[in-house]
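Why does residue order matter? Because the sequence determines the fold. Keep that principle in mind as you read this record.
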Amino acid sequence: MATANNETASSAVCARCHQANVSITVRNEHLCQNCFAKYVVTKVTKRLESNKLRASFNEAPKLFLLPLSLGSSSVALLHILHRQLEHQENRTGRRSFRLHLLFVNQSAAAQQPAFTQVWRSLKEHFPSHSYSIVELEDVFNYDTDCILDLSPLYAESASDSHSSNRDHLENFLSGLPSATSRADMIGIVRTQLVDAFAKKTCCDSILYGDSTTRLAERTLSETAKGRGGAVPWLTGDGQSPHGIKIVYPMRDLLRKEITAYTAVTTPPLTPFLLENTIGKKPSASSKNITIEDLMGQYFESVEQNYPSIVANVVRTSGRLVAPSLGSQDDAVCHICRLPLTVGAEGLRWSGEQEGSASTTCSNGSRDMPKLCFGCARSTLKQ
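Structure:
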């Protein structure tokens, strides 16, 4: 846990350099600002090296896609990678990788703060990288077999061939039964859009800025939603079922540590952070609260005094081994495209186990897509 401690700073020196005054306490270790910054950068660098992401001297620089939410974690990751590239170029005259920064505008699906000015400032401060903005509904343009091609499920949303991508997305989301279901499907659409964009732009890997805290939240929320069997693919480094390498370089850092890092850099990174109004957690009595909101509230409190619990959740999920993927297309969920649970053949849209009597969709079709338990729960109309 990273906390400022003025009383400690006035009476002690840094536990690492033994020179500067203490300004931050990180997991019971008292550090000055410089040593704290080195602590954060070292965590990220070791994670990158363990995944062997750097190109050798004789290879062309690799291209990495860095999706930005404009929150503290993704912007801090951009800052660290940018500084690393500058150091490489000054030392060797070349860069071992290139960055393509991507922002997904989700205004079609949820309320979102204005991001144009922050995005412009980011481009001016980090001008040596490529930048792209895509709309959430652009998933149709990148992936013709995306999850929203659900004509057997929602005949009314597919009946109008002249409707726009945005209308199609809004119709699909509006038909979902709960706030948790909508948040779940928005996350799946966003992930598939990022994957499709990475493939189209020939990126070698996707680097996500998720912190230890965020990965712990995802582990428990996905388990609660019925996707516990997919946790290795949703939280771990490695090849994804969608055919591209996923890496979480910030996975060894708590959210509070990353937030503190954005304030101690020179210049501070706070001007490049988007005020995330939709990230404010609603009260427990709100009818719109989601499982993600509840997990966020829980780990926000746990992280304050028991950071080891947060880290243990991620370490435990990291020990789970993703089973090998089969070659048959029907071995994956029709919606999230994650492999179905080993030993189970999945669920049909009706929520019945595969092999049971088939049911008819709203448009009269009996061609029912196969779903994992989590997607069946999110999309099944009660």
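Confidence is low (pLDDT under 50) at residues 6-10, 344-366.
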